[in-house]
């Protein structure tokens, strides 16, 4: 391609060279008039950067309420600006638990943690090979009086040869067992100390599903004085723990081994329950968020009784030998119902004999409470004390009759069928895998 400049028209003329396609074209280009050499424009980038930085500083000052500092950091040959907050941490005030002042979780923790204790137990046992082995377990508890009475779960200290209690300030004491009761899974310990920070007990009557609750304790036996938060998932939940029926508060707080015996606290700082159990699996299903606490209203009198007498002295007692009615038992004795508590015998001179209970009777109600199993009967008895009177509905010889019973005081011995709810012939303590087998027989009982 060639081009020529025509000074008359001030145009360049372009001509396609020979050999190029026939559809060549001719273009025209008009150059701009010669311009005077100009100085390059002054660079104002630094001013733009300064404006941007000023805007950032202003926005940061507004966003943090002016509570921000800036410091320079050398990065190689350059300097960078790092924004760092100067906000001071909020100081949590320790408020007095008065039942009227609602607090934040941080304030509840500050107000109650000095009343929580870590419990460590040790015991010596003999395994199946006749060897003496040491075992250890841990749990939680809370101080109920300033002179050293402590509440925990019975299963935390059951079988322990020695019990030590550690306070939040690190002081450790040897504790003595005042007494306990497996039916209520409640025990009272005593340490020789004075001027301790005691909890304030609350009532479950004011609780609602959805209320915020906090669990403070000793998860895994090592993470001492940890707090987890959740809500009340259900009230008056009937569950069975190793064959013993309980009326529980269901919560979704994180609860783990070692939390047992610790306090369940509301946002007023009141202890409304004793953390007692957790389901981590059900049948073959893994579950989450299923924790349970014993309502304080159910055990306050039990705790007082143990503190005063060393035991629960007025537990209602029917003085009978009984078990859950099964279909095979119903067929054997010609009974045409399949739910209730079957009476094997009445103890001579006891409440059951005085009421007229005899072999073959099936208890189906205690007052207005339906009875379908031994668990139901055990649960119903907790509503009565020795000396109380109740009406029993009994199925006898194909008809229902009513009997009046005045409860005896339950003797502080074990072994009667009435005291041990039937569990279908199974033994819940026997391990069902090799790991649990090893732990069970060789003394590692901390689970």
What does this protein structure show overall?
The structure is a single chain. The chain has 447 residues and is α+β, with helices and mostly antiparallel strands. It folds into three domains: 1-88, no CATH class; 105-309, Beta Barrel (Thrombin, subunit H); 316-409, PDZ domain (Pdz3 Domain, Roll). The protein is 16% helix and 37% strand. The longest helix has 19 residues, at 45-63. The protein is elongated. The termini are far apart.
Map the helices and strands.
Layout: E1 2-6, E2 11-15, E3 28-29, H1 45-63, E4 68-75, E5 78-85, H2 105-112, E6 116-126, E7 132-143, E8 149-152, H3 154-157, E9 162-166, E10 172-181, E11 186-190, E12 200-201, E13 212-217, E14 226-241, E15 244-251, E16 263-266, E17 270-278, E18 281-282, E19 285-286, E20 291-295, H4 296-309, E21 316-317, E22 320-324, H5 327-332, E23 341-346, H6 351-355, E24 362-366, E25 369-370, H7 374-381, E26 389-396, E27 399-406, E28 408-409, H8 434-441
């Amino acid at each position: 391609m060639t081009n020529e400049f025509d000074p008359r028209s001030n145009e360049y003329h372009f001509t396609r060279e020979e050999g190029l396609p026939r559809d060549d074209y001719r273009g025209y280009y008009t150059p701009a008039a010669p311009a005077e050499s100009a100085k390059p424009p002054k660079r104002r980038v630094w001013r733009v950067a300064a404006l941007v930085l000023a805007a950032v500083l202003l926005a940061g000052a507004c966003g943090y309420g002016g509570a921000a500092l800036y410091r320079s950091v050398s990065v190689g040959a350059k300097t960078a600006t790092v924004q760092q907050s100067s906000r001071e941490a909020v100081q949590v005030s320790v408020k007095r638990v008065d039942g009227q002042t609602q607090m934040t979780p941080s304030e509840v923790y500050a107000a109650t943690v000095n009343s929580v204790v870590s419990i460590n137990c040790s015991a010596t046992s003999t395994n199946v090979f006749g060897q003496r082995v040491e075992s250890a377990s841990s749990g939680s508890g809370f101080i109920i009086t300033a002179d050293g009475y402590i509440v925990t779960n019975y299963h935390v200290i059951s079988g322990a040869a020695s019990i030590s209690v550690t306070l939040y300030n690190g002081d450790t004491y040897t504790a003595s067992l005042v007494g306990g009761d497996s039916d209520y899974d409640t025990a009272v310990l005593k340490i020789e100390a004075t001027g301790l920070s005691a909890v304030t007990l609350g009532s479950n009557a004011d609780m609602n599903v959805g209320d915020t609750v906090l669990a403070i304790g000793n998860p895994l036996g090592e993470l001492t004085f940890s707090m987890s938060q959740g809500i009340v998932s259900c009230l008056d939940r009937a569950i069975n723990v190793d064959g013993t029926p309980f009326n529980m508060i269901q919560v979704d707080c994180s609860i783990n081994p070692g939390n047992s015996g610790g306090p369940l606290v509301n946002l007023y700082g009141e202890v409304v329950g004793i953390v007692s159990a957790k389901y981590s699996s059900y049948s073959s299903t893994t579950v989450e968020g299923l924790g349970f606490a014993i309502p304080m209203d159910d055990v306050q009198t039990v705790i007082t009784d143990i503190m005063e007498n060393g035991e629960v002295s007025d537990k209602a007692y029917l003085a009978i030998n009984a078990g859950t009615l099964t279909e095979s038992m119903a067929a054997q004795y010609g009974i045409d119902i399949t739910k209730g508590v079957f009476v094997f015998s009445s103890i001579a001179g006891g409440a059951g004999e005085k009421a007229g209970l005899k072999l073959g009777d099936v208890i189906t109600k205690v007052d207005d409470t339906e009875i379908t199993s031994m668990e139901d009967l055990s649960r119903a008895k907790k509503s009565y004390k020795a000396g109380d009177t109740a009406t029993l509905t009994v199925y006898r010889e194909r008809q229902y009759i009513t009997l009046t019973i005045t409860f005896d005081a339950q003797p502080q011995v074990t072994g009667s069928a009435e005291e041990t709810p039937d569990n279908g012939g199974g033994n819940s303590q026997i391990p069902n895998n090799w790991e649990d087998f090893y732990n069970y027989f060789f003394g590692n009982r901390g689970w």
